[in-house]
C-alpha cells in the first residue's frame, strides 16, 4: 500500500518536472490561466488590481500556513510537553483583529479607485446605444443616426458538427460594432426582451442589459484590432449564440465607414422603390431567413414543435398572407416570436415573407401569394 502511494507521488513529481522542460507548451497554458490584461487603461488597472490582491493573498497564505506548519512540527506534545499560556492575551487578540482590518483598508483603496474609473460616466466623444435581443445585439450610433443588428455568423453546419469548427466558432458576427481607436466611447446598454449582459473582456466591460433601464460603460481603446466577447446573462435557448465583436479601427477608416453606412441607407431607400421579381425577392429572403429565423424555425423550416412552429406547410405561410405579414410586423404576444418591424428593412421584410411562402414546397402546396417592399411601406402607414 505504502509502496504504491510512493510510486504515485513519484509519477506526479516526475510529470511536473518534465512539463517544466517544455516551456512553450506549459507557458501557453499558464497564460490562459490568468486574467487578460486587455487593451485599455481601465482593463490594465483591473488586471494590476487583480495581481496586487493576488500577491497579498499569497503572502498572507504563506505566512499563515508557514506559522501553522511550523507550530505543528515544532510544538508537538513530545517536543514541547508544557504548553505556553498566552491564551486570552488582550494584546494578541487586538493585534490579530487590527492587522487584517488594516490589510482590508489597504486593499479597498486601490479597488475603489479602479471602480471609480470604471464608472466615470460622462458623455463620450461617440455615444452608442447597445440593445440586447433574443439573440443578437443592436448598435445605435446616436450622433450619426446609424443603427444595425449584429447576428451570429457561424455556419449552422459547424454548430451541428457536420463540418469542423472554425477558429472563431460562436465568436463571429455578420456585422461587428466599429469604433475608432483612442476615442472615448460611451455605451448606453439596455435590452428589448429579457436581461442580457454585454461583455468584452479586453475592455474590462461587463454590463447588464436590462429592459427599461440604461446602464452605462465606457472605453478608450489604444490598439486597433478585433475584440470578442459574449452575452453573459442566461437569456434563453440561444444565450450562447449571441457574441459581441468589436472592431477598433483608425479614425480615417472609421469616418469612411460612417459615410458608407449612410450611403447604404440611401441605397436601401432606392431598393424599396424598385420593382422586384419573385426570384430576386426569394433569393434575398433566404439570406434574411438564415440570419434571423433559423435559430427557432430551423433552416429546414421544420421548427422545433411544439414551441417553435414549422413554417414548412404552416397554414399561415400557405394561405394567409395578411396574417403572415401581421405576425412578422407585430410579433405574437407572450411568445418568442417578436416583432421584426424595426429590425428588418422593408426590403428584407418583404423578402423573408416571400421566401417563407416559396421555400420547402410552400408555393406548390399553398396559394403562392407573395409580398413586395411596397406592401410593407403601405402596412406601416398610419391607419385612419
Ligand atoms: Cu443574451
SSE blueprint and pairings:
Layout: H1 2-19, H2 23-33, H3 41-74, H4 90-118, E1 126-133, E2 136-141, E3 146-150, H5 156-159, E4 177-180, E5 185-191, E6 196-200, E7 205-209, E8 215-219, E9 225-231, E10 244-249, H6 251-273, H7 278-292, H8 294-297, H9 315-319, H10 321-330, H11 346-358, H12 362-365, H13 373-380
Parallel strand pairs: 1-5, 4-10
Antiparallel strand pairs: 1-2, 2-3, 5-8, 6-7, 6-9, 9-10
Helix pairs in contact: 3-4, 7-11, 11-13
Bound molecules: copper (II) ion (CU).
Please, could you describe this protein's structure?
By secondary structure, the chain is α+β, with helices and mostly antiparallel strands. The chain has four domains: about 30 residues; about 80 residues, Helix Hairpins; about 140 residues, Cupredoxins -  blue copper proteins (Immunoglobulin-like, Sandwich), CATH 2.60.40; about 110 residues, Cytochrome c-like domain (Cytochrome Bc1 Complex, Chain D, domain 2). It contains 13 helices and ten strands. The strands form two sheets. The protein has a five-stranded mixed beta sheet. A hairpin with a 4-residue loop joins β6 and β7. It binds copper (II) ion. Copper (II) ion binds next to loops.
Short description:
The protein is an alpha+beta fold and about 375 residues long. Helix content is about 45%, strand content about 15%.
The proportion of residues forming helix, as a percent range, comes to: 40-55%
Q: What is the number of helices?
A: 13
Largest sheet: 5 strands, mixed
Give the topology string: H per helix, E per strand.
HHHHEEEHEEEEEEEHHHHHHHH
In order across it, which strands form the biggest sheet? 3-2-1-5-8
Let me know the CATH homologous superfamily of the largest domain.
Answer: Cupredoxins -  blue copper proteins
Residue fraction in strands: 15-25%
Number of domains: 4
User: How is the CATH topology of the largest domain named?
Assistant: Immunoglobulin-like
Task: Give the CATH class of the largest domain.
Answer: Mainly Beta
Amino acid at each position: 500500500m505504502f509502496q504504491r502511494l510512493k510510486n504515485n507521488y513519484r509519477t506526479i513529481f516526475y510529470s511536473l518536472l518534465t512539463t517544466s522542460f517544455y516551456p512553450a507548451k506549459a507557458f501557453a497554458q499558464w497564460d490562459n490561466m490568468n486574467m487578460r490584461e486587455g487593451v485599455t487603461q481601465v482593463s490594465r488597472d483591473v488586471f494590476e488590481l487583480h495581481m496586487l490582491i493576488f500577491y497579498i493573498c499569497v503572502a498572507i497564505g504563506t505566512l499563515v500556513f508557514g506559522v501553522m506548519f511550523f507550530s505543528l512540527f515544532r510544538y508537538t506534545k513530545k517536543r514541547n510537553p508544557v504548553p505556553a499560556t498566552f491564551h486570552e492575551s488582550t494584546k494578541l487578540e487586538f493585534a490579530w483583529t487590527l492587522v487584517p482590518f488594516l490589510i482590508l483598508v489597504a486593499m479597498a483603496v486601490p479597488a475603489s479607485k479602479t471602480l471609480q474609473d470604471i464608472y466615470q460616466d460622462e458623455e463620450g466623444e461617440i455615444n452608442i446605444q447597445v440593445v440586447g435581443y433574443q439573440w443578437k445585439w443592436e448598435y445605435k450610433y446616436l450622433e450619426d443616426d446609424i443603427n444595425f443588428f449584429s447576428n451570429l455568423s457561424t455556419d449552422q453546419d459547424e454548430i451541428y458538427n457536420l463540418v469542423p469548427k472554425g477558429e472563431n466558432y460562436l465568436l463571429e458576427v455578420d456585422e461587428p460594432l466599429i469604433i475608432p481607436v483612442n476615442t472615448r466611447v460611451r455605451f448606453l446598454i439596455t435590452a428589448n426582451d429579457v436581461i442580457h449582459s454585454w461583455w468584452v473582456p479586453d475592455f474590462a466591460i461587463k454590463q447588464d442589459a436590462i429592459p427599461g433601464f440604461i446602464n452605462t460603460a465606457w472605453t478608450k481603446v489604444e490598439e486597433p484590432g478585433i475584440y470578442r466577447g459574449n452575452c453573459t446573462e442566461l437569456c434563453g435557448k440561444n444565450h450562447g449564440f449571441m457574441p459581441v465583436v468589436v472592431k477598433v479601427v483608425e479614425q480615417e477608416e472609421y469616418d469612411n465607414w460612417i459615410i458608407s453606412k449612410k450611403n447604404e441607407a440611401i441605397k436601401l431607400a432606392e431598393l424599396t422603390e424598385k420593382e422586384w421579381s419573385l426570384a430576386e425577392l426569394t433569393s434575398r429572403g433566404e439570406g434574411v431567413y438564415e440570419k434571423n429565423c433559423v435559430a427557432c424555425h430551423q433552416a429546414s423550416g421544420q421548427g422545433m414543435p411544439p414551441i417553435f412552429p414549422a413554417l414548412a406547410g404552416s397554414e399561415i405561410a400557405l394561405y394567409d398572407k395578411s396574417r403572415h405579414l401581421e405576425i412578422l410586423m407585430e410579433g405574437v404576444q407572450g411568445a418568442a416570436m417578436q416583432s421584426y418591424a424595426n429590425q428588418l428593412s422593408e426590403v428584407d421584410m418583404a423578402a423573408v415573407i416571400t421566401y417563407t411562402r416559396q421555400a420547402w414546397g410552400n408555393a406548390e402546396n399553398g396559394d403562392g401569394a407573395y409580398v413586395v417592399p411596397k406592401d410593407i411601406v403601405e402596412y406601416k402607414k398610419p391607419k385612419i
